[in-house]
Amino acid sequence: MIALSSLLQPDRGQPAHALHLVSKSGFGEWLKDQPSPVRALLSAAKFEGEAGSLAILPGETPEDWAVAIGADEPLTPWSLAGAAAKLPEGSYRLAAGAAAESALGWLLAQHRFDRYRREPRPNPPRVLLTGDVARIDGIVRIAQATALVRDLIDTPSADLGPVEFARAVEQIGAIGHAIVRTTQGEDLAEGYPMIHAVGRAAAHHRQPRLIELEWGDPAHPRIAIVGKGICFDSGGLDIKPSSGMLLMKKDMGGAAHALALAQLIMAARLPVRLHLLIPAAENAISADAFRPGDVLDSRQGLHVEIGNTDAEGRLVLADALTRACEEQPPELLIDFATLTGAARVALGPELPALFSNDDALAAELIAAGDRVGDPMWRLPLWKPYAEMLKSELADINNAGSGGFAGSVTAALFLERFVAPGVPWAHLDTFAWNPAARPGRPKGGEALGLRAAWALLQARYARPA
Q1: Is 20 in contact with 95 (CB distance < 8 Å)?
Q2: Pair 412, 385: CB distance under 8 Å
């Protein structure tokens, strides 16, 4: 596998092919400055700067060729991705402008998940040179974090259960010299009863656990990141149809995002006290599975009636959110979760739904996402819909009645377990590309990760 860090290098004037980014609106002016052989070739190729199009341009010698790339206006992180996947091995530099805006797509277009292929797909390295040397490390780290999310999600559940996810946290924690601890067994049953209930039906070697990582100076601002780690979701006794289970290896996508964000924080040595919490479980079916109609204790003390065992993600998150707010409450709490199909019905696969109890935090996240090309859309914590979560038997029901506003009622459920006064953002993300696009293959995807990282950098990064 190619190391992503090798694909973005400082430009020291070494030999490289020129990349001309040409927009459709600017094509005519650019074409006027090209020599007649280039104009003839582009005419024959019908190249007019259409986004995603590509043409090889002849030079004075056979080795001195260049590339015209149809570009978006304005540039996006993916403007170079299509070219990076198609060009031959070699080094390249932009003929004009900075490469940083589109370097992420250049790197990720060359990432492959070939763990299950006997013969890896051909992938000759294409190196992008940039004069913006100070930004190289940051771009590479974001590409590595995105690749981590994709690889974890794409790994089949048989090879990525709660045990394996705990190992992944330990490996990344070791790199950052973090403290990692895992709660399982009787300690989990007593301390985190809803995480235990959701995962107790799984095989012994796939038993549930709460994985926690702590890193940083305790004197620094405390932030907590929580990720839903359902390593496979059968739906429990409210079993999903086979079509609904087909993608449920991705139900730990929220945990993948949370771990990748933790990796970014530690690699950049952000001056924060980080608390990462991943409730990891498999929602399986056996004689010991929790049932519709059961009433579960929670770590917070609320009693939760189970209206649907397929609404399990909010249960494990609730215990983790409670834990995140204990002792010294964080000044910022973010959770990532592949939580509801209702969010996808509302916003489709590319836009995470954002819920927040803090208007300023929500505005910051949306603005950060817009800056880095990682958009999201805010949906309301509409208080009147809390009526849909009422239980005649217990304090709250885990499934909203009436069949409406499923993503809103799920977020309202989670809000009950966030301590008052703690600024909280909940990202209901799909974590999956249903179709391939340049730099974004079909499969696991990081949606909301770069926005959250941009927010944290804006808030906490040390001045240069």
Answers
A1: yes
A2: yes
Catalytic-role residue among 314, 323, 344, 450: 314
Alpha helices, DSSP H only, in 46-154? Answer: 81-86, 100-108, 136-154
Q: Say which DSSP state 6 is in.
A: G
Which residue, 356, 339, 346, 369, is CA-closest to 430? 339
DSSP state string for 297-341: --TTS--EE-S-TT--HHHHHHHHHHHHTSSS--SEEEEEE---H
Which CA distances in Å does 365 have to 202, 254, 259, 331? 36, 17, 18, 15
Distance CA 411, CA 408 (A): 5
Residue of 240, 378, 437, 459 marked active site:
240
- Dist. CA 194–CA 313, nearest whole Å: 10
240 tagged catalytic? yes
249 noted as active-site residue: no
Question: Dihedral of the CA atoms 346, 351, 352, 353 (nearest 10)?
Answer: -40
d(CA 182, CA 202): 18
Q: 428 with 410: CB under 8 angstroms?
A: yes
Q: Nearest CA to 364 among 453, 447, 455, 425?
A: 455
Handedness of CA 339, 341, 342, 344 (dihedral sign): positive
Instruction: Convert 242-259 to b/e letters by CB count within 10 Å (16 or more is b).
Output: eeebebbbbbbbbbbbbb
Tens of pLDDT along the chain (464 residues) come to 679 999 999 999 999 999 999 999 999 999 999 999 999 999 999 999 999 899 999 988 888 999 999 988 888 999 999 999 999 999 999 988 777 889 999 999 999 999 999 888 888 999 999 999 999 999 999 999 999 999 999 999 999 999 999 999 999 999 999 999 999 999 999 999 999 999 999 999 999 999 999 999 999 999 999 999 999 999 999 999 999 999 999 999 999 999 999 999 999 999 999 999 999 999 999 999 999 999 999 999 999 999 999 999 999 999 999 999 998 999 999 999 999 999 999 999 999 999 999 999 999 999 999 999 999 999 999 999 999 999 999 999 999 999 999 999 999 999 999 999 999 999 999 999 999 999 999 999 999 999 999 999 999 997 75
Record the tokens describing residue 30, joined without a space: 């650019």
Tell me how far apart the alpha carbons of residues 100 and 89 are, in angstroms, rounded to a whole number: 20
